[in-house]
């Protein structure tokens, strides 16, 4: 049994606490939402843990994570360990690790994949940091990862920052996969020769080279709403797709699929595209092609 402090009990953190407790570990959680929190402050959380302590942070990336790490640095003691399991940018990890290292506190960054299904299925974990610290936290990682061989749901990716870098690339790939499935769905719908689109996509789940968990999730969505009419085609991005493309540029690695998927998300937020109005105007100017006037 390992004792763990968990900061941030949102959709991911709450389910992680439940999975860890089910595995027999003691988890003290803190969240600003008093209804789900086990204590009233970070100070109370730290006081409830026996040294040497391990505190896992699951708060929004950027300043919220940096502020939480800095506050923990003032509350924890030498020999304690902080794990950032949020979607932080990998460049933030060296800063966070340096802040804690000044006080003799260890730091690990963990890319976590699994979403709301992780409580039941387990989470894919990509860890960055010192090997000794990884081994110290391994009972926690083993409880969170999927059942089966450790190497199929867990990786010590490298030094500090490697875990979040790996998760960043993972999410970039996810963008491309989702976009490919989405375009296939739209083409099937547009082709009148296909009369049962959900049945076709469901059939892809067995024996085909495009089967995947993402495809299973699309099937699940279509079972609830066969034509997805209940949704608007407006898609946000969490930032990791942009970071992945920035890294692709920095390393001169071609990433046309990921870039197209990210730009498609941008396009989904435009009710009226200035660029496409310009294209329509140009086609009309050089070829006399018909245009649709505003309001038609």
From TrEMBL:
Transmembrane segments: none annotated. Keywords: Gluconate utilization, Oxidoreductase. It comes from the Bacteria. InterPro entries: 6-PGluconate_DH-like_C_sf, 6DGDH_YqeC, 6PGD_dom2, 6PGDH_C, 6PGDH_NADP-bd, 6PGdom_BS, NAD(P)-bd_dom_sf, Pgluconate_DH. Its EC number is 1.1.1.343. The keyword Thylakoid does not apply. The keyword Oxidoreductase applies. Residues 163-296 form the 6-phosphogluconate dehydrogenase C-terminal domain. It holds the Pfam family 6PGD. GO terms for molecular function: oxidoreductase activity. Belongs to the 6-phosphogluconate dehydrogenase family. NCBIfam families: gnd_rel (TIGR00872), PRK09599.1 (NF007161). This is Phosphogluconate dehydrogenase (NAD(+)-dependent, decarboxylating). The lineage of its organism: Bacteria, Bacillati, Actinomycetota, Actinomycetes, Pseudonocardiales. The gene is gnd.
């Amino acid at each position: 049994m390992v004792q763990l402090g968990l900061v941030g009990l949102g959709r991911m953190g709450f389910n992680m606490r439940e999975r860890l407790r089910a595995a027999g570990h003691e988890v003290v959680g803190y969240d600003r939402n008093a209804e789900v929190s086990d204590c009233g402050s970070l100070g109370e959380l730290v006081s409830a843990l026996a040294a040497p302590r391990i505190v896992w942070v699951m708060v929004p990336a950027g300043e919220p994570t940096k502020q939480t790490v800095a506050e923990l640095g003032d509350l924890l003691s030498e020999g304690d360990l902080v794990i950032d399991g949020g979607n932080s940018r990998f460049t933030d990890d060296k800063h966070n690790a340096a802040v804690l290292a000044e006080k003799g506190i260890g730091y690990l960054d963990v890319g976590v994949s699994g979403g709301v299904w992780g409580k039941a299925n387990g989470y894919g974990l990509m860890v960055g940091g010192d090997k000794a610290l990884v081994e110290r936290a391994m009972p926690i990682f083993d409880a969170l990862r999927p059942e089966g061989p450790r190497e199929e749901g867990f990786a010590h990716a490298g030094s500090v920052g490697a875990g979040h870098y790996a998760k960043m690339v993972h999410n970039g790939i996810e963008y491309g996969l989702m976009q490919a499935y989405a375009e296939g769905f739209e083409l099937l719908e547009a082709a009148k020769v296909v009369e049962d689109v959900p049945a076709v996509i469901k059939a892809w789940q067995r024996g085909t080279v495009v089967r995947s968990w993402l495809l299973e999730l699309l099937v699940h969505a279509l079972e609830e709403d066969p034509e997805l009419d209940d949704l608007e085609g407006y898609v946000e991005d969490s930032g990791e797709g942009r970071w992945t493309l920035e890294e692709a540029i920095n390393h001169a690695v071609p990433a046309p699929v990921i870039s197209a998927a990210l730009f498609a998300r941008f396009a989904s937020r435009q009710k009226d595209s200035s660029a496409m109005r310009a294209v329509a105007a140009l086609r009309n100017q050089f070829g006399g092609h018909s245009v649709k006037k505003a309001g038609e």
